Sequence to fold (148 residues):
Amino acid sequence: MKQSNIISLLSVIAKRCGVAFLVLISTSALAQTRGTVTESKDPRIDTLLAKRVELSKLPNTGQAVAPASSNGYRVQIFMGINRNDAYNAQAKFNELYPDIKTYIIYNEPDFKVKVGDFKNRLEATRLMEQLRSQFTSLFVLSEKINLQ
Fold:
């Protein structure tokens, strides 16, 4: 008899747990009612968007525009961890070749000084050969260049 009492007790507990589970599921379903979403934004955002559209429709007004770029070559004339040495190398190059653009790039921990915007490797190699006596470590690198 004891075993049948235990089984009936477990049956009652299972039924109550099942009922509690169904009540829990139904209340969570009721909690997911449809609501409304309100959008709040600064009105200046719309003004800025309208201004951008307006400016994009205007012809070129002589404002600064990002230079066009293409694949090409540059000569690296310096690489080191000292910023002042990088600026000195850039100044030295600018004295020798004031018409050629120079670029200082920092990739931790190194500063790199790159010069020129050459469309082909031959032009970059010619400059590199001219610079051999002034700079010690020279490399021709393929990268994005600015078109004039």
About this structure: Strands lie at 69-80, 102-107, 110-118, 139-146.
